[in-house]
Design brief:
With 294 residues, the chain is mainly beta. The strands form two sheets. Strands 3, 4, 5, 7, 8, 10, 11, 13, 16, 17 and 18 form an eleven-stranded mixed β-sheet that branches. A seven-stranded mixed β-sheet has the order 2-1-6-9-12-14-15. Strand 14 and strand 15 form a beta hairpin. It is globular and about 55 Å long.
Length: 294
């Protein structure tokens, strides 16, 4: 994997690019009433720290580490997580993920997430945001397989361009796929593609020239009263900013969305939702990962 940190890599576009293929396979199982990382197999620069147990209950907190900090053209990351029967785990990252750009390149950067949760298991997938640099070609795929009475809480936060440095996402694309299945039957399937400078990015029916969009999914039913309270709180965060929040309940799946220009505000809102609905998800109060405070 090329760890170039600038927008434009030095490799000529017509040359065969170097690429790093990295993968990580996690197996989390309940052992003596505590969820343990039974195995962690990796190739390339992708691994986990030792598990943490900041909660009084059995939940295992795991931090995914990717030392290069981002993906260059041609790179591919694959993470597979298997959660055993009645096991409970929370996975997060210590920093934002980055998808670097190479002007004029036609290759892509690929991230594949495969999650399998056994009966009565629970996984909370809470990574920090992914920043798509200008001229990057990002392909982000997440597939979640649930078994009987299994639960999942996950979010995906995408930032187009680097607003702090004045960079606008005007070349490249970001393609996303989110699939959730329960016992082989589709629960939620979403696919979208944002081509830079396209109508999808600029029009009112699309991203409205906002640079941050995010989706949160939870297999729980927190109740109408709580959803109404959350809507009121989220809308009151910064009413002048023009950010858009949405909450909807589709049978036993809660879906929350954000569209705006403030990653920190998005994170704040998603963490609030997580804290409020977690008891409905797995009967536990929210305990934020320690890494979020550093």
């Amino acid at each position: 994997m090329n760890c170039a940190a600038s927008e434009n890599a030095f490799t000529p576009v017509d040359a065969k690019p170097r690429s790093w293929i990295a993968s990580l396979s996690l197996d989390l199982q309940l052992r003596n009433a505590v969820t343990r990382v039974i195995s962690s197999r990796h190739t390339g620069p992708l691994r986990v720290q030792r598990p943490f147990y900041p909660e009084a209950e059995d939940c295992c907190h795991v931090y995914l580490l990717h030392p290069p900090g981002g993906m260059a053209i041609g790179d591919e990351l694959t993470v597979s997580a298997s959660v055993g029967e009645s096991a409970s785990a929370l996975v997060t990252t210590p920093s934002a993920g980055k998808v670097y750009g190479t002007k004029g390149a036609t290759g892509a950067q690929r991230q594949n997430i495969h999650i399998d949760i056994a009966e009565n298991g629970c996984l909370e997938w809470l990574p920090q945001e992914t920043i798509i640099f200008n001229s990057a070609n990002a392909q982000l795929k997440t597939r979640v397989n649930l078994h009987k009475d299994a639960n999942y809480f996950g979010w995906e936060i995408v930032r187009l361009g680097r607003a702090a440095s004045g960079e606008i996402f005007k070349e490249g694309y970001c393609q996303q796929s989110l699939e959730i299945f329960c016992d082989g039957k589709p629960v939620l399937i979403e696919r979208n593609r944002v081509n830079a400078s396209s109508e999808m990015q600029t029009q009112m029916w699309g991203l409205q020239n906002k640079n941050t969009f995010a989706t949160l999914v939870a297999t729980c039913v927190p109740g109408r009263e709580l959803l109404d309270q959350l809507c009121e709180t989220l809308d009151a965060f910064d009413p002048e900013a023009g950010d858009c929040w949405g909450l909807s309940q589709k049978k036993n799946v809660l879906i929350a969305r954000y569209l705006g220009n403030d990653v920190a505000l998005c994170r704040k809102g998603f963490e609030l939702i997580w804290q409020q609905v977690r008891p409905s998800l797995n009967g536990k109060n929210a305990v934020p990962p320690r890494i979020w405070k550093t």
